[in-house]
């Protein structure tokens, strides 16, 4: 079988670099085009030396990538991707967008939280939200997939099945999510400066983080009515990883054993979601450098406490994007994503 030619727009950011690293282990594709605004005509291995001396692919202007690939990843800030996606779809290319442009189905919410409007309403209607384990059947038929936010993935995966099965209350859900600094992107900023984050933990955008409406959209979809959540992101001094500690109320007389059984059975066929045995605690080291989400279930009287961990650069970004590509193209879902977490 001929390999699919893959292009990446925004290839020199952290997410783009991680896409290249992971796709280099994919047997069904070849990377044919890398786009960048800042590094046009420079070799990618001069930007990411981990790729090795022989990885000689030159970066081109972003708008030239589409004509040089069959499948496109867009790894760009919000409000920038859609024009490229429109062009790619016109040229019959499939796309996974790793930005926020297609994540929210409500245009007013997108405008409120991101300050942008839909450029092509029909394209938004036809795009599919790419939380792989939940929307796999829709992803299989999609031309455009919106890759979920990293915090959103860690919170949605444990909560959506429990809400759908009426095992937890939809009110008073609280998520405290701690993330490594790679989530802030490659651009320099004071908040991710070494002396600011080292030996420190920094809550930020309290009650105003842009992933909030995306989380609420997913939870509302699962239960069939509007769900609100209290969500606090916290920056911690590690490179990668997210640990979301989620607090919610058990429904009626439902036991922790029943909840654990339901969640375990829901994901029993999913390679990339692991529900740990009762008594174990999910940590970042369960998932670091893997495409896995590890979930542990705990209780305090009527409160259910869920620990959900992902690598924000893989399951929270590049890895889930490749998982989406695999589903869209009919590849094995774990192709290029089989590496396990590192122990240290």
Describe this structure in words.
α1 (14-23) crosses α11, α6 (132-140) packs parallel to α11 (314-329) and α7 (150-164) packs parallel to α9 (212-223). Helices cover 31% and strands 21% of the residues. It has 344 residues and is α/β, with parallel strands linked by helices. The protein is globular and about 60 Å long. The model has no long low-confidence stretch (mean pLDDT 95). The protein starts with a strand and ends in a 15-residue tail after the last helix. β13 and β14 (303-310) form a beta hairpin. The strands form two sheets. Strands 3-2-1-4-5-7-6 form a seven-stranded parallel β-sheet, sandwiched between helices. It is built from eleven helices and 14 strands.
List the helices and strands and how they pair.
Layout: E1 4-9, H1 14-23, E2 29-35, H2 44-47, E3 59-60, E4 71-74, H3 81-90, E5 94-97, H4 107-114, H5 121-126, E6 128-129, H6 132-140, E7 144-146, H7 150-164, E8 173-179, H8 194-197, E9 202-203, H9 212-223, E10 229-235, E11 242-249, H10 256-266, E12 273-275, E13 293-300, E14 303-310, H11 314-329
Parallel strand pairs: 1-2, 1-4, 2-3, 4-5, 5-7, 6-7, 8-10, 12-13
Antiparallel strand pairs: 8-11, 9-10, 11-14, 13-14
Order of strands in the sheet with the most strands? 3-2-1-4-5-7-6
| Dominant shape | globular
Q: Strand-and-helix sequence, N→C?
A: EHEHEEHEHHEHEHEHEHEEHEEEH
The total count of helices amounts to 11
Oligomeric composition of the shown chains: single chain
* Alpha carbon gyration radius: 20 Å
- Structural class designation: alpha/beta
Taken as a percent bin, the fraction of beta residues is: 15-25%
Low-confidence stretches: none
Please outline the major beta sheet.
7 strands, parallel
